[in-house]
Write a structure and sequence with these properties.
homodimer, alpha/beta, TIM Barrel, Aldolase_TIM (chains A, B)
């Protein structure tokens, strides 16, 4: 890792509409969500996790995901994705026009059961069916979110070998299907050195064309920006973050906000890393999001006087 | 920078008693300060910036520095330091038994004038006199705090060449006197890549025996932990931080808390980096500090449920 030669570019995947909005107890009006997403696109966001296809009873905040996709699917240059926990969700996502399916499985058995109500093996079996389904639709992509890749709220620290077991099975299922694998620090408890180790070890074992790496982190322990940078310097080409630092996991006790997109952007800009996102406009979007009912945020940059950001 | 081989150890310099306590508007009772310092020593802190010798009219919060030194100077294994802005302060510090004098000069002319009421050249001339005085007292050390080494609240971004000019003159004055140079991100506006660049460029130009490097940072922009780690991976062997994330600079508008020692410690521990500090005991000290009147803090780890820190 040579910090004097940062990567030329990093893809920021904006997850406020999914991980963020689902963390607000009372579901937001769809019109409010649209306004915020519009502001994010104005800022230059090109990858957006717009929602999820889960049981509305379990996560009512995501019930309008289809409606949001319809509103934004035709924007040129916008790469939309939606999270799904199973084949049924993947089919709904494709039916609603989603071309990039984010399939989530946790590395730890207990978090997978808490999060998607079944065992890791069942999730992997269903992943095989999702992959078969995606192979039938040209131009679709798969992203695999490996939840609790560093820490589980129930089982504690997760070693890279544990991630490797689940990842190995998933990669065997995927075969030559292009894939982005996200190592997710669901609880924010990962340290930068653990992040570096997991990306390095797993990257060594599974390098290959058609396999990209991403990092998803939370700032609960104050490691958000450092973890993201260590990921980027050890193989990740994409990083998830949520504008205004909104977020959490309803099934991971104690997890708070995602790393704020504006904090991450500030760090990357300092190295001349291109992201396509404009900081002042992103902060305008962050202000909108922070003003939502329930929109408590964990952004650092929003606290800085604006005239100091130039 | 290879994050898979972190340094074996890093010296954490606890600055809550100086940078932290001076940021609380109403001066704290000396007894409260003593209680907090005792808790910090219980946690394993071995380097402590205990206060400063400045005009009590300008910073009344530091008026009891001599009393605090008397209370803790005889602790075995404790490396005490005190900040001074001029020769008069250095003489007072030595008279009170301080063996490590922290001499502060800002790289930017306007911040130096705001902070210590004189130009950089005057500060450097006085540094020459301080060095002459230190040469007369065996066993004394000099630490040079280069304020605004990355950003000035009045002048904006500071390039490494500007730091180099001031540093070069200081090193010429110091000659063979052992010296620790701290690049100080007074406002918290430095990015990790800027930190890496300054340490690398200045380290290349001024490597040598008897010259150590340190980093002093604030978390105002959310870069605190990342900046500290990038410093450590590019030459810093010591890092300043303040327990509970207390701090600011009374003469740097908009600057908020120092990077919290507990956040930094958590990041370093994740790489097996030895610091000698015990996290649970440090959090006990952070609780004490946060409970002080005016002790608003910016610590992340204090917000995490304690049973998640194991």
């Amino acid at each position: 890792m040579n910090a004097l030669t940062p990567p030329a570019s990093v893809e920021i995947v904006e997850v406020a509409p999914r991980d963020g909005f689902q963390s607000i107890a009372t579901p937001l009006p769809t019109a409010d969500k649209r306004r915020c997403i519009e502001a994010l696109l104005d800022a230059g966001v090109t990858r957006l996790e717009i929602g999820s296809f889960v049981r509305p009873k379990a996560i009512p905040q995501m019930a309008d995901t289809g409606e949001l996709i319809a509103a934004f699917a035709d924007r040129p240059g916008l790469r939309l994705s939606a999270l799904v926990p199973n084949l049924r969700g993947a089919e709904l996502a494709l039916d609603h026009g989603i071309r990039e399916v984010v399939y989530v499985v946790s590395v730890s058995e207990s978090h997978n059961r808490s999060n998607v109500r079944r065992g890791v093996d069942e999730s992997l079996a269903d992943l095989g069916r999702v992959i078969a389904r995606l192979r039938q639709s040209e131009g679709t992509r798969l992203r695999l979110d490996l939840g609790t890749s560093f820490d589980c709220p129930f089982e504690g620290t997760i070693g890279w070998e544990q991630v490797d077991r689940v990842l190995g099975e998933a990669l065997a299922l995927a075969g030559d299907l292009p894939l982005e694998v996200a190592l997710c620090d669901t609880t924010g408890r990962a340290s930068p050195y653990q992040v570096a180790e997991h990306f390095t070890r797993l990257g060594e074992r599974h390098a290959g064309p058609g396999l990209d790496w991403a990092f998803h982190g939370h700032d609960t322990f104050g490691m958000g920006v450092a973890n993201a940078l260590f990921a980027v310097h050890h193989g990740a080409t994409a990083v998830d973050s949520a504008c205004a630092g909104l977020g959490g996991c309803p099934f991971a006790p104690g997890a708070t906000g995602n790393t704020a997109t504006e904090d991450l952007l500030y760090a990357l800009q300092g190295g001349g890393v291109a992201t396509g996102i404009d900081l002042p406009r992103l902060l305008a979007a962050a202000d909108l999001i922070a003003a939502l009912p329930g929109g408590q945020t964990a952004s650092h940059l929003r606290q800085v006087p604006r005239d100091r950001l130039g």
